[in-house]
Design brief:
Radius of gyration of chain A: 18 Å
Shape of chain A: globular
Largest sheet of chain A: 7 strands, antiparallel
Number of strands of chain B: 11
Order of helices and strands of chain A: EHEEHHEEHEEHEEEHHHEEEEEEE
Distance between the termini of chain B: 60 Å
Number of helices of chain A: 8
Strand content of chain A: 25-35%
Structural class of chain B: alpha/beta
Number of domains of chain A: 2
Oligomer: heterodimer
CATH topology of the largest domain in chain A: Glutamine Phosphoribosylpyrophosphate, subunit 1, domain 1
CATH superfamily of the largest domain in chain A: Aminohydrolase, N-terminal nucleophile (Ntn) domain
Largest sheet of chain B: 11 strands, mixed
Distance between the termini of chain A: 26 Å
Chain lengths: 309, 227
């Protein structure tokens, strides 16, 4: 099954409560998937800086002196905030590729969860309430965020198999459903030099979007072409630096409910996830149409485009 | 009027209380408050009672209903009224996918829109939707009537048997073996009756009837090579 939630705030006064609201929504979805959980928060950016969230199964050893080592390689200040198995690395702008290479060379078993100016991704095996508490998600503020709770069907229950998946700078993907052509698509993408770490189907979906965008597609175009190239069931929720997008496969058997008020746009796998949001009684509540790409952005007007059959 | 606060009493107790009502119960009017999108509210009722749910419901509300009337004062989640046998379900808002799936009898009324697979494999239920319905509706519908005052999505009535569909607006596409049919007097009478029962003011003459072309009923030996 899996459960997905998303919250895009229009009302700035709610921003300090983003983590708290998103956590409550995600915890409500626990019985759709109690294996593992993850959350992507867009907490805002600071000029001249960028961020990476990294994870290690042995954080005490792996993160020991990591900031100093990276600062030497990158030649600038590196600030590290450790949260349980994750560390947020605050880096000089434009250094994530170098940092990634440096982390690989260090060979400390450090895995990159996210990269971008605003995004932070936290995900682990366990119940949503435990995962959220572990990273203190309820105290986080931000402009928008998405969350996922997983019931694994296509691959093992591991941290790397948990969602969200980082698809590019400040972009991430969560998925409810299962892709049936992920093995052949993984082989094709690997032949084209795309790095895919696990046997997970959603990672292939994420890698596919990244690959499309590297070849010049916009995120909207990449999502539209996913309707042709991905076989299986999916409701995707995609986070970008300034908003989020939703797309469902043409069969649309994976549930999705949206709610919009003057204060926010919210997404939930079920209406249950939305019931505690302020003013939900008077919100416009609807189901996104199949094979239609929707976008909400802080920098432009909302769009929706239906993919011709 | 008996009022049950679902968030306080819990789902099991709520349904147990409703199930305990006998055919000759004096407590015929029930109200459920704070449904908060919960699953399986008022499922499996079998008594002539009227239950009004004040808010939106989750999966399978009023599933397997017999005799009872269930009013949903909000929107309804997937599988609402699944396998309804008799009685009535009225949804004030929208209904999610596979509304009234495999329903054998009774009436379901939707004041808003119904999503995909509305009335899938219907076996005698009547469904009246004031708005639009989604794709693959009434797939393999066997009997009963689906009335749509708005538009129907892709593949209406795919592989249907003897269920009938009345659509006032457009049909995006017809499914395999579903075709447009003539509206005769008996159909106008039937449709008027359904609209009256649903409390919807519409003129049966504005509707088009669709149903099975019956080409898939029997195996065509010319297709033997395809297997």
């Amino acid at each position: 099954m899996c459960g997905i939630v998303g919250l895009f705030l229009k009302d700035k006064s709610l921003e300090p409560k983003l983590g708290e609201m998103l956590t409550a929504m995600l915890v409500t979805m626990t019985d759709r998937g109690p294996d593992s959980a993850g959350i992507a928060i867009y907490g805002g950016e600071s000029a001249g800086r960028t961020k990476m969230t990294v994870q290690s199964d042995d954080p005490d050893v792996a993160f020991d002196g990591l900031d100093k080592t990276l600062a030497k390689v990158l030649g600038g200040t590196v600030k590290m905030t450790i949260k349980s198995t994750h560390a947020i690395l605050d880096l000089p702008a434009g250094t994530t590729a170098t940092a990634r290479t440096a982390l690989d060379e260090m060979d400390r078993g450090i895995r990159v969860m996210s990269r971008g100016d605003s995004i932070e991704i936290f995900k682990e095996v366990g119940l949503p309430k435990d995962v959220a508490a572990r990273f203190d998600v309820p105290s986080m503020s931000g402009t928008h965020g998405i969350g996922h709770t997983r019931m694994a069907t296509e691959s093992a229950v591991t941290t790397m198999g948990a969602h969200p998946f980082n698809t590019g700078d400040d972009q991430c993907l969560v998925h409810n459903g299962s892709l049936s052509n992920h093995n052949s698509l993984r082989r094709k993408l690997r032949r084209d030099g795309v790095h895919i770490e696990t046997e997970n189907d959603t990672e292939v979906g994420a890698a596919y979007l990244t690959w499309q965008m590297q070849n010049g597609a916009t995120l909207g175009e990449a999502l539209e072409s996913s309707l042709d190239d991905l076989d299986g069931f999916f409701t995707f929720l995609v986070g970008t630096k300034d908003g989020f997008g939703v797309v469902r496969d043409p069969i649309a058997c994976k549930p999705a409910v949206m709610a919009e008020t003057d204060q926010y746009v919210a997404f939930g796998s079920e209406y249950r996830a939305l019931v505690d949001l302020p003013g939900i009684e008077n919100a416009r509540v609807w189901e996104p149409e199949p094979a239609t790409v929707y976008f909400w952005s802080h920098s432009s007007a909302p769009t929706s485009s239906e993919k011709a059959a | 009027m008996q009022t049950i606060d679902l968030s306080d009493v819990g789902l099991r107790e709520t349904n147990k209380t409703l199930h305990a009502q006998a055919a000759d119960t004096n407590q015929t009017q029930w109200e459920i408050i704070n449904p908060r999108g919960s699953h399986a509210i008022a499922c499996g009722l079998d008594a002539p009672i009227e239950v009004t749910v004040k808010g939106s419901t989750g999966y399978y509300c009023a599933g397997m209903n017999q005799q009872a009337t269930v009013n949903i004062r909000g929107s309804a989640g997937p599988g609402t009224g699944e396998n309804i046998m008799s009685g009535k379900i009225v949804i004030e808002g929208d209904a999610s996918q596979y509304l009234g799936a495999t329903g054998h009898g009774g009436l379901i009324v939707v004041k808003g829109n119904a999503s995909s697979r509305c009335g899938i494999s219907m076996k005698g239920v009547n469904i009246v939707v004031q708005g639009n319905i989604g794709h693959m509706s009434a797939f393999m519908g066997q009997s009963g009537n689906l009335v749509v005052c708005g538009d129907a999505g892709d593949a209406l009535g795919d592989s249907c048997y003897e269920a009938q569909f009345f659509v006032r607006g457009s049909v995006k596409s017809l499914g395999a073996d579903c075709e447009k049919k003539e509206m005769r007097d008996e159909h106008l009478t039937l449709l008027q009756g359904l609209l009256d029962e649903a409390g919807i003011d519409a003129d049966p003459k504005d509707f088009t009837r669709y149903g099975s072309a019956r080409n898939l009923y029997n195996f065509d030996v010319d297709n033997a090579g395809a297997y």
